[in-house]
Design goal:
Blueprint (H helix, E strand, L loop, with lengths): L5 E3 L13 H8 L17 E6 L5 E6 L4 E4 L5 H13 L2 E4 L4 E4 L1 H4 L4 H4 L3 E2 L4 H9 L5
Parallel strand pairs: 6-7
Antiparallel strand pairs: 1-4, 1-5, 2-3, 3-4, 5-6
């Protein structure tokens, strides 16, 4: 994938995302971290991870008080890690290339009103998220 999806958490239809739960982010991503662990949390509270999935796919992730940016994730198992992170955060994925929102039914109600109608609601699994963002995988 040559794009960078974003993860945001919204609460009660508020127009601005709330900060992601950094403890959840670390719990999901640290087991897959392949970068320098000293660089995962910055002095300013931002965090950065370079993760590798079981199939060798990689992605860089950085988080601040607004959300999480996933830089050029590979298709496959990395998307499963992203799906787990999104589920555990109660968050949504925004595809900036199409300005689309992908989320579970539980999070749809928390989106700002102007984002709800066009949100793609899925079961947050690797396959469903990858299909929603890139189209179905071909054998």
């Amino acid at each position: 994938m040559a794009w960078s999806p974003l993860i945001f958490t919204f609460v009660d239809g508020g127009g601005a995302p709330v900060p992601p739960a950094m403890a959840v982010e670390r719990a999901v991503l640290e087991p897959h971290e392949v970068g320098d662990p000293r660089l995962t949390v910055g002095e300013d509270g931002t965090s950065g991870f370079w993760i590798r999935a079981s199939d060798g796919g990689e992605a860089e992730m950085s988080a601040d008080r607004y959300g999480i940016l996933i830089s050029r994730p590979h298709a496959g198992a990395v998307v499963g890690i992203v799906a787990e992170l999104v589920s555990r955060l109660g968050a949504v994925v925004i595809d900036p290339s199409r300005a689309g929102v992908v989320c579970r039914a539980e999070e749809r109600a928390h989106l700002p009103a102007d984002m709800r109608d066009d949100a793609v609601v899925i079961d947050m699994t690797c396959e469903a998220l990858e299909a929603a963002l890139t189209g179905p995988r071909r054998p």
